[in-house]
Amino acid sequence: MDRVLDMFAKRQRRLILFALQDGATKHESDFVFRGAGSADDPQLQLIHTHLPKLAEAGYIEWHRETGEVSKGPRYDEIEPLLDLIENHADELPPNWP
What we know:
Mean pLDDT: 89
Low-confidence stretches: none
Strand order of the largest sheet: 1-3-2
Shape: globular
């Protein structure tokens, strides 16, 4: 549970996981989200922090050479939590996911 919650701790990682729910392969450029007031480069955060962390946990497959991102072998472990969040979105704070 700690690992799952750690993955959900950052909004950018939550958005990546939600974007993969449809099962389609995405490109890493699809996940460059500009944060208001963010001093850090979102592209650098994505490729040096968020994608590697999700890939290491097995929640995504990330091919650095092509930039392709898809569901990983352990994605099904977090899918129930994604469904729960999606089904109760109206009860969550404004910045969720």
